[in-house]
């Protein structure tokens, strides 16, 4: 593993260890179900991994994670509500079988 990749993983692991329980709890408080909360929290940390180099340090990272969780949960609610704009913007939306599109579930 390259040195830069090792540092990236170390930074993400520290971020996850410091904030994952709080983000999962926040998502659990705001999501429609426990599984929706777990999905939202996982998506928050996936986004954090992808944007790790742009994340602020210290408390700024915590604020960024909560803001990202709020946006992920809002998108999730739109999806569950059947908002076609949310579905059209979702990655893989075209791959959702037609019979499932009207069910409120991806």
List keywords for this structure.
106 residues; mainly alpha; Rna Polymerase Sigma Factor, Chain: A; 0% strand; elongated; disordered C terminus
Blueprint of the fold:
Elements: H1 3-30, H2 34-50, H3 59-81, H4 84-89, H5 98-101
Structure write-up:
The structure is a single chain. With 106 residues, the chain is mostly helical. It has one domain: Orthogonal Bundle (Rna Polymerase Sigma Factor, Chain: A), CATH 1.10.1740. The chain contains five helices and no strands. The chain has helices at residues 3-30, 34-50, 59-81, 84-89, 98-101. α1 (3-30) runs antiparallel to α2 and α1 (3-30) crosses α3. The longest helix is centred in the first third of the chain and has 28 residues, at 3-30. It is elongated. It starts with a helix and ends in a 5-residue tail after the last helix. Residues 94-106 have low confidence and may be disordered.
Cα end-to-end separation: 36 Å
Please state the average pLDDT score. 83
Number of helices: 5
> In percent, how helical is the residue content?
over 70%
- What is the count of structural domains? 1
Largest sheet: none
Which residue ranges are poorly predicted, with pLDDT under 50 across at least 5 consecutive positions?
A: 94-106
The 3D shape can be described as: elongated
Structural class: mainly alpha
CATH architecture descriptor: Orthogonal Bundle
Strand content: under 5%
CATH topology tier name? Rna Polymerase Sigma Factor, Chain: A
Task: Return the CATH class.
Answer: Mainly Alpha
In N-to-C order, the SSE pattern is: HHHHH
Radius of gyration from the alpha-carbon trace, in angstroms: 16 Å
């Amino acid at each position: 593993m390259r040195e830069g990749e090792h540092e990236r993983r170390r930074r993400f692991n520290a971020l996850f260890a410091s904030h994952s329980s709080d983000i999962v709890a926040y998502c659990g408080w705001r999501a429609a179900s426990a599984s929706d909360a777990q999905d939202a929290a996982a998506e928050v940390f996936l986004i954090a991994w992808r944007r790790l180099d742009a994340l602020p340090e210290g408390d700024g990272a915590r604020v960024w994670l909560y803001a990202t969780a709020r946006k992920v949960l809002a998108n999730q609610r739109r999806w569950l509500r059947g908002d076609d704009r949310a579905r059209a913007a979702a990655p893989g939306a075209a791959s959702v079988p037609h019979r499932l599109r009207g069910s409120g579930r991806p």
